[in-house]
Design brief:
Blueprint lengths: L1 E5 L10 H10 L4 E4 L2 E2 L4 H15 L6 E8 L7 H11 L3 E5 L11 H6 L5 E3 L6 H9 L3 E5 L8 H11 L3 E4 L11 H10 L4 H18 L2
Parallel strand pairs: 1-2, 2-4, 3-4, 4-5, 5-6, 6-7, 7-8
């Protein structure tokens, strides 16, 4: 299993990074990214610390560890600069918290995120045709999620991505030990989103593709 959307105590997760890494390793994960929620107040606090702990632990695990960030609930026009700041601070995976059905994310977040230097648009809710086309054109991955609430629009996201050629990933948006999932369960979630076998296989290929690109 590869999981590129996990939260630690540096935002609203329950575990310190070292415990996240050990728990994921123990259940056979191949790679992960820790992507805590950030805005202008904490981005320079979180990323250097995630970079530091991953650099220290990486020699002791076969998993690929990627420092990341999830830009969350900020005014859409500020997303491009925050994405640049994330890269400068060392984030390998930059996620934007999309317009989920279950939180009051400001309208315009999806499209502004897709016009920025990010890797994944998380749980983008009722993503529009324009947004799905933009994701495809800019090679930004759209997220299918196991997270309760955010997963309500998985089927819509999958349909839009397949229709307009955008790439999909599956993540947990993990906040606590019980949020980790197996690959077998991830497959069930993707089937539930309406994907057929060859499309599910492609999702896991997409995840491998991200890892290969980030560790060059």
């Amino acid at each position: 299993m590869i999981d590129l959307h996990i939260h630690s105590v540096f935002s609203d997760g329950e575990l310190i990074p070292a415990e996240i890494i050990r728990r994921a390793e123990a259940i056979g994960y191949k790679a992960l990214a820790i992507t805590d929620h950030a805005d202008h107040s904490n981005i320079d606090l979180i990323i250097p610390r995630i970079v530091k702990v991953m650099e220290r632990i990486q020699p002791f695990t076969n998993m690929v560890l990627l420092p990341g960030i999830e830009i969350t609930h900020v005014p859409p026009d500020t997303i491009p600069d925050l994405a640049k700041e994330s890269r400068r601070l060392g984030a390998k995976i930059v996620i934007v918290h999309g317009e989920t059905l279950v939180e009051p994310v400001k309208e315009g977040t999806n499209i502004k995120a897709l016009q920025s230097d990010i890797d994944i648009l998380a749980h983008p809710g009722l993503i529009t045709e324009e947004e799905a086309i933009e994701a495809s054109a800019r090679n930004i991955y759209l997220e299918i999620t196991s997270r309760r609430g955010h997963s309500l629009s998985n089927g819509h996201v999958a349909h839009a991505a397949l229709k307009y050629g955008a790439k999909l990933v599956i993540n947990t948006d993990c906040h606590s030990p019980g949020d980790f999932i197996s690959k077998e369960f991830a497959i069930k979630i993707l089937k539930g989103a309406g994907l057929i076998e060859k499309e599910i296989y492609k999702v896991f290929q997409n995840m491998e593709e991200i890892i290969r690109r980030k560790i060059k």
